[in-house]
Amino acid sequence: MVSNSFAQALAISGEISTAVKEINTEEAEKLAERIMQARSVFVAGGGRSGLMMKAFAMRLMQMGYQAYVVGETVTPAIGPEDLLLIGSGSGETQSLCAMANKAKSLDASLALITIQPGSTIGKLADAVLKLPGATKDQAGVTGTTRQPMASLFEQTLLVVLDGMILKLMSMQELSSENMFVQHANLE
């Protein structure tokens, strides 16, 4: 059983590695610039994608950004100098579509990380970063995956967002040591 689990983990890591190699670096660079220019960065996503977005918000906060998770009680109003960054495989989740429309109506910038750039949210977005993967119903599969539902997208999302943090750290000449000042200390 352990060796089978290990073989599955190796196969999953191979899928993630292949997916990351397919990412358009120009799209990723444009997203990094939008994040750098934003007064505040608001993140959103549903389900497991939402968890990956929360992890990204935490790292942004540790870098000194004003970063918020949409739906949390301490999240302020979004405005014209702000960025809403949505992680959504399908780009069609109704609650996220409503959020995207609201952000645009308030003149905020909108960015999407997705499998489907031509989705409802993708068409509204000022910047889109396309990731390979499959949505939860396997529609729009852009590669092969042995994993269930949208696992490959969610894992790739986390890895790409961690890579984005490294890019932003480099752009700002920050080190991990600089970030520990903002690390939680009430635990």
TrEMBL record:
* Biological process terms in GO annotation: carbohydrate derivative metabolic process
Has keyword Zinc-finger? no
Which keywords accompany this UniProt record?
A: Isomerase
Q: Does the keyword Phosphoprotein apply?
A: no
Matching entries from InterPro entries are given as:
PHI/rmpB, SIS_dom, SIS_dom_sf
Pfam families the record matches: SIS
Q: Where is the SIS domain?
A: 31-174
Q: Which GO terms describe its molecular function?
A: carbohydrate derivative binding; isomerase activity
PANTHER family recorded: 3-HEXULOSE-6-PHOSPHATE ISOMERASE (PTHR43443:SF1)
So what family is this one in?
Belongs to the SIS family. PHI subfamily.
Q: What is this protein called?
A: 6-phospho 3-hexuloisomerase
